[in-house]
Design a protein that fits this description.
heterodimer; A: 249 residues; alpha/beta; Glycerol-3-phosphate (1)-acyltransferase; seven-stranded mixed sheet; B: 91 residues; mainly alpha; Non-ribosomal Peptide Synthetase Peptidyl Carrier Protein, Chain A; 3 helices; 48% helix
């Protein structure tokens, strides 16, 4: 039965993926371009909103009913001070799409490979997504500062690469240094159940449920005396502890 | 400076700068994978070691080959043998 579900899930998803993407481009491009008549900032806001809607279609639309996503912690999202820095564990290539769960404007820190995806990579770059591996920390910090000054939050996967398994990798500290420098709140987001959706090195998704759980925001006052090294491990520990509980359920 | 002194002072840098528990400071511990440092932390580590041993190691090409804590001990000890360690190191 699972094999049948898997075949239907992947067949439906990949048959609809290309036409859905083309339709999204045709439908949203004029709206985004029209926003440029008001201001560059408005056009960027519309582009990032488009990405969020597109992500929701890819996660909450196309794979239904065989791949479900449950997001807990959404109810208190309006109380998160913004801009903020969202920190997530990273198991699968579907993670960037899952970030559509948030209702606020944000860009993601990605590795180099997502920029190489046809069309999506170009759109991500246009929207201000950053690759920490393509620039010095000083340049990265400057670009993040510009976004944060505009009120845009930043979503990061500080493991740097997909783990593909339940175990978490070590965190890199760039975003934690920026959180300390700019006194920004950190929002930990735990992702569980996505390690095989799809499996690393494959496009084949498995049916099941992905769980997203947003933990309480870590405010600057809580970590202002920490070093960047201590802060990244502090956040890593709370995400790791929660994901272990989520995996055990 | 003896190897034991190098180990002790190097461990002090890791404990003070990164608050890493002494029991984790083993020669075979990989600086990135086991101790969790990243490239930016290495800058802090170099600064800490420079202050502790009163040396200039930032531009030393051999730093790039360091992978484990044991490599750090060996590198600092080698600097001592070369006479590069000196001045008034911080306590």
């Amino acid at each position: 039965m699972t094999t049948v579900k898997k075949i239907i899930l992947n067949a439906v998803f990949y048959i609809l993926f290309v036409p859905a993407t083309i339709m999204a481009v045709l439908f949203f491009t004029p709206w985004v371009v029209f926003g440029r008549l008001f201001s560059y900032r408005e056009a960027m806001r519309r582009l990032r909103l488009t990405i969020r809607w597109y992500g929701r279609m890819m996660i909450w639309g196309l794979p239904q009913p065989f791949l479900k996503v449950r997001y807990t912690g959404k109810s208190g999202e309006s109380s998160i001070p913004r801009p903020c820095i969202v920190i997530c564990n990273h198991r699968s290539s579907s993670d960037p799409f899952l970030m559509a769960c948030f209702s606020f404007e944000a860009v993601q820190i990605v590795n180099i490979w997502p920029f190489k995806i046809p069309l999506l990579g170009v759109v991500a770059k246009l929207a201000g997504y950053l690759s920490v591996n393509e620039m010095s920390f000083e340049e990265f910090s400057r670009r993040c500062g510009q976004l944060l000054d505009e009120g845009v939050s930043i979503i990061a996967f500080p493991e740097g690469t997909r783990s593909g398994v339940n175990a978490m990798g070590q965190f890199r500290g760039a975003m934690f240094r920026i959180a300390l420098e700019r006194k920004l709140p950190i929002v930990p987001l735990c992702i569980s159940g996505n390690e095989d959706k799809p499996i690393r090195g494959s496009f084949c998704m498995n049916p099941g449920t992905v769980f997203l759980h947003r933990l309480p925001t870590v405010m600057y006052e809580q970590f202002k005396d920490m070093t960047p090294f201590k802060l990244k491990n502090y956040v890593r520990d709370i995400i790791e502890n929660e994901t272990k509980l989520m995996d055990a359920r | 400076m003896t190897k034991e002194e190098v180990i002790s002072k190097t461990n002090e840098v890791f404990e003070k700068s990164f608050e890493i528990a002494p029991e984790r400071l083993k020669p075979e511990a990989h600086i990135f994978n086991d101790l969790g440092l990243d490239s930016l932390d290495i800058v802090d580590l170099v600064v800490g070691l420079q202050q502790k041993f009163a040396v200039t190691i930032r531009d030393d090409e051999r730093v790039r080959n360091i992978r484990t804590l044991g490599d750090v001990y060996d590198f600092i000890y080698l600097l001592g043998q070369e006479g590069s360690v000196g001045g008034s190191p911080s306590k």
